[in-house]
Amino acid sequence: MSKYILNADLNNPVHSNFVGNAAVFHGYAGMNDDAGRVYTEEQCVLEADRAAEVGVKIARTMYRRYAEFNEETGKWNFDTQSMNCFTRFCERLKERNIDVAIQAGWCNPGDINGTGWNDKIPGGAEMDPNEAMDKYVEWMVESLKYLIIEKGLTNVKYVLIFTEPQGGLCGVLKGYTHPYDTWCAATEAIHNGLVKANLRHLVKIVGPNEGSTTRSDMLKAVAPRTKDYVDIFSSHNYLVAWATEDSGFENGEANIVFTCAGARIQQSVMLEPNTDYEVTVTLKGFAKNNDTISGSVSFGAFHPSKFEHKNYISAGSYITTRLNARSTKMIDAVELTNDWQDFTHTFNTGDFNEICVGIFSDIKQMEMGAYLKKVVLTKKGEGENLLNDGDFSNPRAYHKRYKNFDLVKWDWLAMAAEYIASNSYHDWHRWVNTAMQFVPEGKEFWFDEYNINGLFFDKHSDPYFATQLATATLSLMTSGSQSSIMWTLFDQQWPNNHSANRDCWYDGDHRWGVMPNLMRSTIPYPSFYSTGLVFRYMGGSEGTKVYEIKDGEPIFGAITISPEGKIGIAVVNTFDGEREIELNLNESLGGVKLQKRVYDPATIVPDENAKQLAPVGEITVDNKISDTLPPYALVVYSNID
Fold first, then answer.
1. DSSP annotation of 524
2. How far apart are CA 32 and CA 80, in angstroms?
3. What residues are paired with 369 via a beta bridge?
4. How far apart are CA 477 and CA 294, in angstroms?
5. In which region does residue 424 sit, left (phi positive, over 0), alpha (psi from -120 to 50) or beta (all else)?
6. Is the pLDDT of residue 408 over 80?
7. Judging by DSSP bridges, how do beta strands 254-258 and 369-379 pair with one another?
8. Residue 567, H or E segment
9. Cβ(183)–Cβ(168) below 8 Å
10. What's the CA gap between 641 and 626, in Å, rounded?
11. Number of CB atoms found within 10 A of residue 122's CB
12. CB atoms within 10 A of CB 272
């Protein structure tokens, strides 16, 4: 077994003020529910204890209109059942040294005028937009005044303006032309309202919470307009698929993966009419059983006015969108092997000078599909690739259409297809790096939601999923982001909610966390333990520095050092097979003693005690660590309690 040599430069931190890892954790404990699904006081306390056991530093929570406005007195009544539950939630977190990031409404602009699903205001759609904005700001300012000043909840430190506001949920507010405008106006208005109330110095404003995005278009657009009001800029994405160990990708290489029937990627391009062109795609397949795989992949020239953005392939019962009868080629799925292959097709543009080059996957079976490495479009007999980003090296050329605000021609538009690297660690880095180029100087950046879905939508209890989730957290720590917010900390029953859909909703129980709803089980998922190793034993506080562990793919990792001398070192083995490592530090840690903890997906056995993994030994670290990592294991060495 060859040894993997890892290196860390302790002279060059990737961040010098890492505030710790955060998670979405709603303050629903104890709230009334129309079906009687309410936590007891003991369950409320246990939930908070589990949050402290994981080691989450910041809880981002939904904040609804729990208080009631009295029209006669013109004042807010905060003595309601829901508000008392929310206040007690914040108190429990304060007692456990967990800060709170309040979601100042959810829907943009629906929570300004009360037309969104989150909060309803009679006649809100007809309300004067200035009056609506004033009421929205008053609600938020009075709420913060009550929580921080009157109740002494100084752990309420952050305010996030809406959630994924780029799409204009509930339309566009009267007098505005775009959702970006209403978000900027709301952000400025809350800033000014907090200044007037002498509260602005007590909280940081975070936004725009744009997602899910590989491009951070909204962040790019709103940052120059709101840099005087926003303290921490943010955006996010979710990982839908990752490369397998035998994918054959080079380190950091970008590819497109088609994971389900109907996936596609396409781009408009201007060409000469009545001219022959040649399109070549480089593909490989992945399948559990080539004997049972069925379906096809089609590629070639499609009609520009029918630029596809729906979640189905336009064939079969649908009228085809291909340019003409011979403009596309169909590849039987069984032809796609584990090796890269080039497939070429020649078409004629006919009377068109704008066409759409597209690749459509209609492979039927789950967990079978195709990887796309490159697309080349040339004029017949010539060598220049006429496509933008034909090798997918530029993440800003990869685009997901979001309603009608974001139609971008000449870029790759994808539906269901995903943009992935040789290892998911690189995906998280790429998304942060793309976003951070738009963050104004002197401002921080948070990756404000993340998790893994796709094939793992119903496998959040899988021990190997826990390793992928820990890999995401470590990658975000070493990306330059000051913090990241995992979606979500625990499965939670949303009060009075009975939703059920593939986004892990089961009768209003949103199952995205590292622990089940306590009304279902007190035994956590395996990811409770892997998340705890990173969240708790890697620390995070003012002045904490983060360093990246490099050069050892498929081994990745991070080092944290606080001003008080608290040290955490984490390494994760992301592929199958035992790995022997040697980590070299260019500066001595002075013989510090660190306790070693191991998350091994092959041996983890969750139990209802839900205590973090006990140390398996202690090591003394000067400038080197040598160890052997089990397959898909996470190992943390730390002197943090």
1. P
2. 11
3. 286
4. 41
5. alpha
6. no
7. antiparallel
8. strand 567-573
9. no
10. 23
11. 8
12. 11
Q: Per-residue pLDDT averaged across 9-38, rounded?
A: 97
Tokens representing residue 210 in the block:
């744009």
Antiparallel, parallel or unpaired: β 418-421 and 254-258: antiparallel
Classify residue 385 by burial, with Cβ atoms within 10 Å: 0-12, 13-18, 19+.
middle
- The strand pair at 68-70 and 3-8 is best described as unpaired
195-199, 267-271, 294-298, 307-311 — most confident range: 195-199
Q: Which CA distances in Å does 151 have to 156, 315, 361?
A: 11, 61, 56
Residue 370, beta-bridge partner list? 258, 285
Question: Which alpha helices (DSSP H) does 30-175 contain, by range?
Answer: 41-54, 81-95, 110-113, 129-144
- Picking from 484, 504, 373, 389, the residue whose alpha carbon sits closest to that of residue 431 is 484
User: Chain-wide mean pLDDT for the chain?
Assistant: 91
CA gap 290, 284 in Å, rounded: 13
Sign of CA dihedral 134, 137, 141, 144: positive
User: Tokens at residue 604, please?
Assistant: 């983890």
**What's the order of all strands across the beta sheet hosting 398-399?**
328-332, 295-302, 354-363, 263-270, 412-415, 398-399
In the block, residue with structure tokens 């005044």: 145
Please state the three-class secondary structure of 95-124 as a single string.
Answer: HCCCEEEEEECCCCEHHHHCECCCCECCCH
Q: Which residues contact 458 (CB under 8 A, 6 or more apart)?
A: 504
Which of the 8 DSSP states describes residue 126? G
**Cis-peptide, bond into residue 524, ω within 30° of zero:** no
AA identity, residue 31 = M
Q: How far apart are alpha carbons 344 and 280 in whole angstroms?
A: 4
How are the residues of the chain apportioned to helix, strand and coil, as percentages rounded to the nearest 5? 20, 30, 45
pLDDT band with cut points at 50, 70 and 90 for residue 212:
confident
The amino acid at 242: W
Q: How far apart are CA 215 and CA 230, in angstroms?
A: 20
Instruction: Check if the beta carbon of residue 330 is closer than 8 Å to that of residue 316.
Output: no
Residue 29, Cβ neighbours under 10 Å: how many? 24
The packing angle between helices 179-196 and 129-144, to 10°, is: 50
Token pair recorded at residue 128:
């004067």
Give yes or no for residue 313 having a pLDDT over 60. Answer: no
* pLDDT of 367 higher than 90: no
* Residue found by looking up tokens 């000078």 in the block: 353
pLDDT band at 167 (very low <50, low <70, confident <90, very high): confident
- Once rounded to an integer, what is the mean pLDDT over residues 153-167? 95
Residue pair 98/58 in contact by the 8 Å Cβ criterion: yes
Q: Which residues pair with 280 in a beta bridge?
A: 344, 376
